[in-house]
Structure formats: structure tokens, C-alpha cells
Design goal:
- Its EC number is 3.4.21.105.
- Keywords: Hydrolase, Membrane, Protease, Serine protease, Transmembrane, Transmembrane helix.
- It comes from Abeliophyllum distichum.
- By secondary structure, this protein is mainly α.
- It is 46% helix and 7% strand.
- Strands 3-4-5 form a three-stranded antiparallel beta sheet, with helices on one face.
- Helix 1 crosses helix 3 and helix 7 crosses helix 12.
- It is elongated and about 85 Å long.
- The N and C termini lie far apart (87 Å).
Length: 392
């Protein structure tokens, strides 16, 4: 290579900060170079000029805390609508008045009755299909079965969601959360058609799925790639394994996870380093990088978008036609509950036969055959339903 008679051009060094956590490197802006004085006599002619590549903009997280607040407010409203003292024979924490909880035998999560949840918008497939109440696919995401259910989901949302919102902003994370929740409700409705379903778990698993696909699609900007991937896979596997317990809607978890996984390739894509360097520090790169994203990132983006559109379209059509996927998959119910000697997976709604003799009401559970006599004075239908739930 021919060399001129002048001094060689100065080198451009780029220093990149890395965040904590999975040691992700986020290049974005470049500070204006500091003014350089004339080189001193004892300095090398090859003056070194430094430019610093900053993080991506760190967003202020306000949407995720707003989601948490909304869930808490909706739960308080649900407990007010439940009004245990008026509609049940006995209540837990009766000093709370209309906000007191249903008996532990009916709801061990410290929460409302199933009828109150249904009134507030729980996912009821029969009403979605026959009464065209499709809005229940969304409203069920904001309801919770009890205090324990609410606390577990909201703590998880704060831990996972705030970090993601700081990294990617409220628009992308808000869409990821809501669409994943819809995907969870949709898959749940196609498999669980005899019970109601509530909870933000589908949306939460969507955030986990988005984190996993974000690691994959932005593979080159992670310092500890394998550690980040293995850690996420273990966390996701542990959480999904909890879904094999009874009364846990693992289909909502799976639907939310796969929706979030595909959405992560669409919403959480990062530009490649070479493009950032070329744009903000042109003196650094000796080769031209024309594309903002790598080829594999674009392929994942296109495939994921196609799968999302096709999946949601087919799922909604099947739901509105009243399709029960259990009829086409004889083993799929094991994905949501695995029976053992300690518990049963029979989650049929409680139903009882009632016999009245004066103020004596004898209820016989149709599910397990248990009978019990209660002394009641003009009980309401909701009170009898609550006693039936406790008996069964």
C-alpha cells in the first residue's frame, strides 16, 4: 500500500459502556469529541482521539407501575361488588365489611366468589361464543382470584416490566403486554371451556417470552450470551412447571409466552454495532456496513409477524365457531394439570342438589357425592352457590 509523505491519520477508539444484568451493550449516541490542542513536543504524531458511545436512551418507567395500580384498583372494586357479608353465610376478615373475603374452602386465595369475578368480566367461553362477549378476552387480564394471586403477579410485573420499559419504552412494552395477554386468553378459551379464567399471568409470560427472543435476535450485543440464555430458559421452565398444578391455567401461560416470544422479534430488535459505528463514528470503520439490521434479524422479524397474524386469526375464528381443541388433542390437557395421588385435575364447576325442609337445607354435591345440612333463613341463590362451592 502506498504511503504519503504526511503523518498517518489519527486512530479513533470507541469506548462502549455495558449495563449490569446480562452485560448487554447499548450503543446509541456519540458525544461530541473534546477539542484537541496541538500535540505537545513529546507526544506521538499518531494522536489518539476517543469518542464515547453511550447507552440507548433509558426511558422513565411509568406504564408498568400504572398497570400495577390499575390491577389493584380493579381488585378493590371486585371485592366491593362481591360484598361477602350480603351474599355469603360466612366471611374471612369480616371487619373489612363488604371488602371481606370468601371462606377459605370456597376461595383459598383470599378473594371474591366466582360469580363476582364472572360479573366483573372473567373469561367465560360460553358467554364469549354464545353471547358475543369478546371483550372478556381482555377484561379477564385485569382480574385476580385473590390477594395472593394479585401479589404474586404484581411483584413479577414490577420486577420484569420496569426493566423492559426502561430499555425499550412504554409503547413497545405496553403493546407486548396487552397482545400477549390476549394470546394467553385466546389459547385458554380454546382448551378450558367449563370454568372461568382470570389473571395477568398470560401477559407476564409474554414479557418473559419477549425477553427470550430479545436475547436471541440481539445475540451479538450480549457480553455473556450463553449465561443470559440459560438463565432465562431456567426461569421460564420453572414458572411453566408450576402450571401443572390444579386450578392453574397453564394454557394462558403458554399462549402468552409464545405470543410474547414472537412479538419480541418484532418489537425488541436492536441495530447492529457496525451500523451504529458507521453512523456515529465514521472514522472507526474501515468497511462499509449498509444494513441497519443483520439478515437473521430481518428473517426472524418477517416470520414472527406472519406467524402472529396467522395464529391470532385462526385462533379467533376457531373460538367464535365454538371449537374445543381438547376434541382434537387427547393429551393436551396434561399441559395444564398432571394428576397425582395428592391432587385431582377434575375442575368441573361445582353443582349441588338442594332439598328444603323448613329452614333446613340439605345440599348434595354432584361432583363428589358429599352432603351437608344447613340451617338458613331465606337464603339467596348466591349464598347457596357459595355453600355448594365449599362443599364440593
Amino acid at each position: 500500500m502506498a504511503s504519503g509523505g504526511g503523518n498517518p491519520p489519527p486512530e479513533v477508539h470507541i469506548r462502549v459502556h455495558s449495563r449490569r444484568g446480562f452485560n448487554m451493550i447499548h450503543p446509541v449516541e456519540v458525544e461530541s469529541p473534546l477539542p484537541t490542542a496541538a500535540p505537545a513536543a513529546n507526544e506521538s504524531p499518531n494522536t489518539v482521539m476517543y469518542r464515547e458511545v453511550k447507552h440507548f436512551k433509558k426511558w422513565f418507567p411509568w406504564l408498568v407501575p400504572s398497570f400495577v395500580l390499575a390491577n389493584v384498583v380493579v381488585f378493590i372494586i371486585t371485592m366491593s361488588v362481591n360484598n361477602c357479608p350480603k351474599n355469603s353465610v360466612s366471611c374471612v376478615a369480616g371487619f373489612l365489611g363488604r371488602f371481606s373475603f370468601q371462606p377459605f374452602k370456597e376461595n383459598p386465595l383470599l378473594g371474591p366468589s366466582s360469580s363476582a369475578l364472572e360479573k366483573m368480566g372473567a373469561l367465560d367461553v360460553g358467554k364469549v361464543v354464545q353471547k358475543h362477549q369478546g371483550w372478556r378476552l381482555i377484561t379477564c387480564m385485569w382480574l385476580h382470584g385473590g390477594v395472593f394471586h394479585l401479589l404474586a403477579n404484581m411483584l413479577s410485573l414490577l420486577v420484569i416490566g420496569i426493566r423492559l420499559e426502561q430499555e425499550f419504552g412504554f409503547v413497545r412494552i405496553g403493546l407486548l403486554y396487552l397482545i400477549s395477554g390476549l394470546g394467553g386468553s385466546l389459547l385458554s378459551a380454546l382448551f378450558i371451556q367449563s370454568n372461568i379464567s382470570v389473571g395477568a399471568s398470560g401477559a407476564l409470560f409474554g414479557l418473559l417470552g419477549g425477553m427470550l427472543s430479545e436475547v436471541i435476535t440481539n445475540w451479538t450485543i450480549y457480553a455473556n450470551k450463553v449465561a443470559a440464555l440459560v438463565t432465562l430458559v431456567i426461569i421460564i421452565a420453572i414458572n411453566l412447571s408450576v402450571g401443572i398444578l390444579p386450578h392453574v391455567d397453564n394454557f394462558a401461560h403458554l399462549g402468552g409466552f409464545f405470543s410474547g416470544f414472537l412479538l419480541g422479534f418484532v418489537f425488541l430488535i436492536r441495530p447492529q454495532f457496525g451500523w451504529v459505528y458507521q453512523r456515529y463514528a465514521p472514522g472507526y470503520s474501515s468497511t462499509s456496513v449498509k444494513s441497519k439490521f443483520k439478515t437473521y434479524q430481518c428473517v426472524f422479524w418477517i416470520l414472527s409477524l406472519i406467524l402472529l397474524i396467522v395464529g391470532f386469526t385462526v385462533g379467533l375464528v376457531m373460538l367464535l365457531r365454538g371449537v374445543d381443541l381438547n376434541d382434537h388433542c387427547s393429551w393436551c390437557h396434561y399441559l395444564s394439570c398432571v394428576p397425582t395421588k395428592r391432587w385431582s385435575c377434575n375442575t368441573q364447576p361445582a353443582s349441588c342438589q338442594s332439598e328444603q325442609t323448613g329452614n333446613q337445607y340439605t345440599l348434595t354435591c354432584s361432583n363428589n357425592g358429599k352432603s351437608k345440612t344447613y340451617s338458613l333463613l331465606n337464603p339467596t341463590a348466591r349464598q347457596i352457590q357459595g355453600l355448594c362451592a365449599q362443599l364440593c
